[in-house]
Amino acid sequence: MGRRFVTIFAIFVFFTSLAMAAGVQPAALDIVGLYKITGIDPNLTGHGLSIGLVCRSDTYVDSKPQNDYKPDISHKCFKDSNVRFFDDNSIDPGVSSHSTAIASILTGSDANAFYPPLGKFSYKSAVPDAKLNVYEFWHFITDYVFPGHWPKDDLLTMSLGWSSESWWTRGIDNMAENFGLLVVASIGNGKNSYDLPLYPAAGSNVLAVGVVDSVGKISEFGAPDANRSTAGPTLDGRCKPDIVAPGNCLVAVAGTDGLYRPTGDYSSFAAPVVAGVASMLIQKAKSDPNLQFAASSFAGNCIMKSILMTGAKKLPGWHKGYAGSDDDYEYPLDFKQGAGMVDGLASYKILTAGMQRDGDVNTTGWDINIIEPNYAVEKVYRFHTTAAKSRLAATLVWNRIYENQYPFNLQLNLWSDLQLQLRSVNDKGEYKFVDYSDSPVDNVEHLYVPLDPNTTYEVVVSYSPGSQLPEGLTSYGLSWQVSGEKP
Hints:
Elements: H1 2-22, E1 24-25, H2 27-31, H3 34-40, E2 50-55, E3 60-61, E4 64-65, E5 68-70, E6 82-86, E7 94-95, H4 97-107, E8 109-115, E9 119-124, E10 131-136, H5 137-145, E11 155-158, H6 167-179, E12 182-186, E13 207-212, E14 243-246, E15 250-252, E16 260-262, H7 267-287, H8 300-310, H9 344-353, E17 359-360, E18 364-371, E19 378-384, E20 390-397, E21 418-425, E22 431-437, E23 444-451, E24 456-463, E25 474-483
Parallel strand pairs: 1-9, 2-10, 2-11, 5-7, 6-10, 11-12, 12-13, 13-14, 17-19
Antiparallel strand pairs: 3-4, 8-9, 15-16, 18-25, 19-24, 20-23, 20-25, 21-22, 21-24
Helix pairs in contact: 4-7, 7-9, 8-9
């Protein structure tokens, strides 16, 4: 009896340890804090949200796509998913392993999943209750980008890319600006793929996502490697990627009823991780009247991009611009990490800190605003520190403006060059310069600066001195967070 009890107990401990080790997957979503957000707000499952997933066909014959772009929704993780497909119906649509993996990260769900090295685990995607609209790439370009039509999704994500700018990549930038639509795209898979950041991720108004390295496991990640995650700058000197995320996720295997496997370190799978976090933030913003401006068609993409970048975690080696002892003020981001690795919980706290107009503000918050084309005009955000050790992260984002029809050329007369500056103010009202970010080509500026305690600071948005002033107003999104201070 005693020996039997010991055996049963040992078996129980073995399977319990397996379950504890496996936990909830994909682990990448846990690493970026997504499951922590649902712990705070369990309603953020994507309900009422529509995600547009643009997928390239897996095979081409004489340059013609063969319509095999669809996620395999017969896999059991999609049993309760709401998935629709959009293509030109020219060829019967087929299944794509690539799209199946991406879709499972976004909307898959399987409480009784199994993977031999882990045992039994719970598969919980980013936003299982969201509606997923899956577009075949060329259908999307023809029916939405070329005519400039809004696909009526809350955000778009694309894990595809080309090495050069084209009319359709500018059309996607135009779509992002026109509809305030956040577009999340993968930057490319390092030096073995292409030398330069890929479009549409390299586009000015798109959030470009690179991939961090998994350190031998699907639950441990290190800094990105340029051999596997394409690094900037772009050909015209802009900083890309904007942000990085884990990409090695357990995902659904197409053509099976319930098998899972890891993807490996590819930006294709880092992009839906970031899109999943963004989806939760957009759902939160849409559900709260005090936050709805962050998901509006008026520069909503700018503030969401800004919040994600401000909340990002700096990984080892983070440095603005080229490697060296000092930051390069004309380069707002690190060429491998962008603003850092997405941190969903930090971004959630920035969003929920609320919209705050220029003037006196809290140490965490955001604003959507407009600045007049005048060198003397400044938008000033003033706060006071108390913590002994703190650091400011702040990100300014605005859209490049493109023509509304083919070939969607850049409107140079509306080109804006903004500057982001930090200065301190003493009791006599005297200013002291602290830091600034002023790229002549980027439409993103980013600060990451240590602060002194018991000091008043001002974050200042202005036009870059001596730059070409646009022929109209410039709308922008700004977010900030002082670590060590209560929101």
